[in-house]
Amino acid sequence: MGRPHTEFIHAQDLPWRLGELPGALGELEARMLSIDAERGDCSVMIQYPAGWRRTGPEHLTAAHEFFVLDGALEISGSSYGIDNYAYLPAGTTHRNWGSEKGAVVLTFFDARPVIVDGVGAPKADPDAPAVPKLNLHDMQWSTAGIDPDVMFLRLAKKVLRHNAKTGDATFVLECGGHTHPKDWRERQLAHPCVEEMFLLSGDIVGERGVMVGGAYFWRPPELWHGPFGSRGGNHCLIRFLGGHHVNRWSKDALQFTFDPPHNPVLPAHMKRYDRPHPLPRAF
Ligand SMILES: [Fe+2]
After folding, report:
1. What is the assigned CATH class of domain 148-265?
2. Residue 225: pLDDT band with limits 50, 70, 90
């Protein structure tokens, strides 16, 4: 059935809830951003309380992909601080999974995340190898491979993972400030894959409203979107899933404005948490 079109919600407006994740993970407070109710794959913000720890060894039935927003998390002797990222394929053994001082972690599971006791046996997939740890502060920005037609946004990226076979990719994008389409008009874009975004900082202004830090969307394939701009610049974490990222442009251009109406598309259960967020003000 896939996940519902969710474009967009501000994560800080969602309640922290127990029991959002199955089994023992349900004891962690979480904000569910999107989930496939049948398959259980989900994108979720997890709050690890100070002192939480599981000794293991154990493994998960899902790939465990995460980006640390705050605090620090430890798994199998690696410590992940702010702006650290990892992709641990399903079956990766977790030992001493915990947090000494607490952490808030943006987490992606590609299947229902069930904890299984004992050492795991991750499938060897040369197209989707483990990414044991990346510290984004040690990585260089690159413009390689970015469509020149979207460079009016002054984009640069740090690629965190890319499966050349399936097209699945995770990267952080930087967008310049005072950016908007030339002549304030641009065509819309669509891709043959899911596009998912979490706005780490700054602002993105688009045809559905104003997104500021904490905004999240899950957009199924082939839906028109944009045009976009940014008043103050931004950093966002983007994932493409279920296909290769190709930009397809609409025939007609739309007017761009920094003052669009607030018009998100949300699943019914999320609508009560929706509220507009103004662009950050300097006064
Ligand atoms: Fe897009």
Report:
1. mainly beta
2. very high
> CA-to-CA distance for 50 and 188, rounded, in angstroms?
45
Instruction: Report the separation in Å between the CA atom of 27 and the middle of ligand 1, taken as the mean of its atom positions.
Output: 35
Cα 233 → chain centroid = 18
12-119 with 148-265: one CATH topology? Answer: yes
Question: How far does residue 102's CA lie from ligand 1's centre (Å)?
Answer: 33
109 Cα to the center of ligand 1, angstroms = 22
Ligand 1 centroid distance, CA of 191 (Å): 7
Average of per-residue pLDDT values in the chain: 97
pLDDT value of residue 282: 85
Q: What is the domain class of 12-119 according to CATH? A: mainly beta
Q: What is the mean pLDDT of residues 243-258?
A: 96
Q: How many whole angstroms from 225 Cα to the centroid of ligand 1?
A: 7
Alpha-carbon distance 231 to 229, whole Å?
7
Give kind and range of the element (H or E) at residue 73: strand 73-75
Tokens of 175: 């967008």
pLDDT tens figures, 98-155: 999 999 999 999 999 999 999 999 999 999 999 999 999 999 999 999 999 999 999 9
Where are the chain's structural domains?
Answer: 12-119, 148-265
Measured in angstroms, how far is the CA atom of residue 136 from the centroid of ligand 1? 22
> How many whole angstroms from its chain centre is CA 157?
14
Ligand 1 centroid – CA 238 distance (Å): 9
Contact 8, 217 (CB under 8 A): yes
